[in-house]
Design brief:
alpha+beta, Arc Repressor Mutant, subunit A, three-stranded antiparallel β-sheet, 3 strands
């Protein structure tokens, strides 16, 4: 569900999920639900080193993948990394090869599933 903010900014996203007793660390308290509240203005940081390990990416490729997974476009990612657009395209092609993907959307979905 969403909770509006008095400031008018993007609403908070609230997820309420049941907690299974067998996975509970606090079994004596018998928790019933877990409540997660996400702040829409806060960007989670993706660990580039995990992408390097999971997919065999170089440090440079992992940094590019992190920016793309954070919602950056390829051209702006290249600018942030201080590389040319052509270099970014070459790195992206290598990332696609190493992750067995062929589109940015597919790559991002894979990264988010892997990191989660």
């Amino acid at each position: 569900m969403r909770a509006s903010r008095p400031s008018g900014k993007q609403p908070y996203v609230i997820l309420v999920a049941p907690v299974s007793r067998r996975y509970s660390l606090l079994s004596s308290l018998r928790p019933a639900v877990c409540i997660l509240i996400t702040h829409p203005d806060q960007q989670p940081s993706l660990p580039a080193d995990h992408l390097q390990t999971a997919f065999g990416l170089t440090q440079a490729e992992a940094r590019l993948a992190v920016l793309l997974a954070s919602g950056e476009e390829l051209r702006s990612s290249a600018e942030k990394l201080g590389i040319t657009y052509g270099t970014a395209r070459v790195r992206l092609a290598r990332i696609f090869q190493k992750t067995d993907t062929s589109r940015q959307g597919e790559l991002i979905a894979l990264i988010l599933r892997t990191i989660a």
